[in-house]
From TrEMBL:
Compartmental location: Cytoplasm
Known EC number: 6.1.1.1
Protein name: Tyrosine--tRNA ligase
Top enzyme class: ligase
Species per Swiss-Prot/TrEMBL record: Neopusillimonas maritima
Recorded GO MF terms: ligase activity
Record keywords, A-Z: Aminoacyl-tRNA synthetase, ATP-binding, Cytoplasm, Ligase, Nucleotide-binding, Protein biosynthesis, RNA-binding
Classification via InterPro entries: aa-tRNA-synth_I_CS, aa-tRNA-synth_Ic, Rossmann-like_a/b/a_fold, S4_RNA-bd, S4_RNA-bd_sf, Tyr-tRNA-ligase, Tyr-tRNA-ligase_bac-type, Tyr-tRNA-ligase_bac_2
């Protein structure tokens, strides 16, 4: 399509609306509209790339924000390339880090990669997903090819990257191999002839390198779609295993359901926007119902059931709800309760009670446990030596004291 301006048909407008829902930034929108229009005219699907380094074996809901967007693009008829960065994992992504990231061994990478795609397939349509490993084209480059690739990008451009600049000014070492990471990620886009690359907001620099390298290799530059980083169950930090505020997609239905019910009423709408497959109109209607007096807890149940159904079954979701309600049947759980963040996981229940302000002293904590007056997520605590691992818990003392405690 040679014209500089594209007339947005109703179909094109709807496609663009779906693509931009919940996104942080679409670069460059005018270029992407031309790609969409050309795809509709020719029937040739766009090539949509997502690269993930298998640095850990499990995927949590934070990862699925981008996977959900990929599924929406698949439903529009485009080709999704699920790229496993088995080569780049051996370099280590320095994004957002204040120190050199230790590279993974080939054995670790292979072990983690085995479960990655299986879990991602719970969101993506396997029939419309192209699975690739970037060792396919990175290994054959060899030393000569790596030097030629490195000649296409300057140190000055590399130092525009915020975390490199911060570390350089602070005197924190930057290893030469770390400069190779954004180069290799960008070269992936060249090898795959990507039309659009997705990533979190923390990946923006790397995605832009891909655009520039494609131009260097005489290709049409990819567009970039960045997605927000999902807050964890604490509503503060991004979802992360190390923070203990995550919901893994391979967790049991009960665990997943309980954690989703533990998020705040405010955070619930963020999860609806980024995780739910409900339309924007449906979500707006639910918000209006809450504003008019509907209990937000009931809306949160709808969200929890949708997510549990996606990663398990509808029967699992119904049974998880039934068990959740049974645990709280003998008491009224307030919709609004204090939110407390504590460090030092694992931490003993007596310390948790005291530090969360649910009791005034250790002896009071011990007495309440001995008398059966302490519950964690609806289950009575009988063991004074109970250790709570990292996570979010609804803790009850007596009939009226509650706190939602996030332990990291």
């Amino acid at each position: 399509m040679s014209s500089t301006e594209v007339t947005l048909s109703p179909e094109l407008e709807e496609d663009l609306r779906v693509v931009k829902r919940g996104c942080d930034e679409l670069l460059v929108e005018s270029e992407f509209v031309k790609k969409l229009a050309r795809s509709r005219e020719t029937g040739q699907p766009l090539r949509i790339k997502l690269g993930l380094d298998p640095t850990a074996p499990d995927i949590h809901l934070g990862h699925t924000v981008v996977l959900n967007k990929l599924r929406q693009l698949q439903d529009l008829g485009h080709t999704v390339i699920f790229l496993i960065g088995d080569f780049t994992s051996m370099i280590g992504d320095p994004s957002g880090r204040n120190a050199t990231r230790p590279p993974l061994t080939a054995e670790q990478i292979q072990e983690n990669a085995q479960t990655y795609y299986a879990q991602a397939s719970l969101v993506l349509d396997p029939e419309r997903t192209e699975v690739r490993y970037n060792s396919e084209w990175c290994d054959p480059l060899g030393a000569r090819g790596m030097i030629q690739l490195a000649s296409r990008y300057t140190v000055a451009r590399m130092m525009e990257r915020e975390d490199f600049t911060r570390r350089f000014k602070s005197g924190i070492p930057i290893s030469v191999h770390e400069f190779l990471y954004p180069l290799m990620q960008g070269y992936d886009s060249v090898a795959l002839k990507a039309d659009l690359e997705l990533g979190g907001t923390d990946q923006k620099f790397n995605l832009l390198v891909g655009r520039e390298l494609q131009k260097e290799y005489g290709q049409e530059a990819q567009c970039i779609l960045t997605m927000p980083l999902l807050e964890g169950t604490d509503g503060v930090d991004k979802m992360s295993k190390s923070k203990g505020n995550y919901i893994g997609i391979s967790e049991s239905p009960d665990s997943m359901f309980g954690k989703l019910m533990s998020i705040s009423d405010t955070l619930m709408w963020r999860y609806f926007e980024l995780l739910s497959f409900r339309s924007e109109d449906e979500i707006s209607l639910l918000q209006k119902q809450v504003e008019e007096g509907a209990n937000p807890r009931n809306i949160k149940v709808m969200l929890a059931q949708e997510i549990v159904t996606r990663f398990h079954t509808q029967t699992d979701a119904h049974e998880a709800l039934a068990r959740f309600e049974a645990r709280f049947r003998d008491g009224v759980i307030p919709d609004d309760m204090p939110e407390v963040g504590l460090d030092g996981a694992p931490k003993g229940i007596l310390k948790v009670l005291r530090e969360a302000g649910l009791v005034a002293s250790g002896s009071e904590a011990q007495r309440n446990v001995e008398q059966g007056g302490v519950k964690v997520d609806g289950s009575r605590v009988d063991d004074k030596a109970l250790q709570l691992s990292a996570g979010t818990y609804v803790i009850q003392v007596g009939k009226r004291k509650f706190a939602r405690v996030t332990l990291a």
